Amino acid sequence: MEQEQPVRRKRRKKKRLRLRGILFLLFVAVLAVGAYIFMQFQSGHKLAEESTDMPVIEFDGDENNGDFENILVLGVDARGEEISRTDTMMMVSHNKQTDEVKVTSFMRDIYATIPGYQSYKLNTAYYLGVKETGKVEDGVALLADTLRTMFGVEIHHFAMIDFKSFEKLVDIAAPNGVEVDVEKAMSKNIGVKLTPGVQNLNGKELLGYARFRADEEGDFGRVRRQQQVMSAMKDELISVSAIPKYPKLAGAAQGYIQTDLTVGDQIKMATSIAMNGGTGVERLTLPVENSYSFASYSHAGSVIEMNIEQNKQALSGFLSQPLE
Q: What count of Cα atoms within 13 Å lies in the side-chain half-sphere of residue 322?
């Protein structure tokens, strides 16, 4: 018995040492991961040094819920230097339960009821809000309120980027380009020449592809290509191998994207979608087919007049969300 006690003490001591060793290794691993994330974030931030950090913009979004969140994504001709109209208006819907992503595009020529103003094209709402106060947040708020008024949709967050920043961010996110099937030769008014076929496009080429409208489809074709680009970018970023890029990309985004989402929220959402979400992106364009006509007004020019209720029903069915 007396000999067994020292043996037991030695075993307990070995177990304690082993446990301490494991805890120490876990501590080192946590520090290493933290250091990697910080260094990657700083690396991305340095890439955007020529751009000053985007100011934090307050956005009076709808109350968050546990089921879904809708993010208003805007593309503008210029960022901050002059008052612009929104060339791209999309709502990216993230289902928090399934991590599915759906994209709704709003045609910029929709004849819209803008709160506090007479009806104009939808892409004028942002312009009017900024013109009134000189503040970007008021332009975003007026456009969001216009969409809420017309469609009864909730908008929780927003993100806005100008075209030059889009080019740079694409090149950081996908150094080898983004795979796109270019359906025809394109060059008019887009600053690049694209040839038909599946190919990897850099930031400038991808932007040109998304903006092309010199064909029979006009703006409807442009919106379709914008959605295609959004889907291709998601495919590029949801692979598990892309997750280590997120801190670097989030760092770079601070100089290129204006949003009310925190850096942590951006990385958390991207990681969740990459780990759990499907590869496809469902897409809808408003107005839907056979729900609109073309008209012209002296104060607004050529516009698209749409059946609001028909399009609201289409949006409700697409999103599977309650609309007011």
A: 3
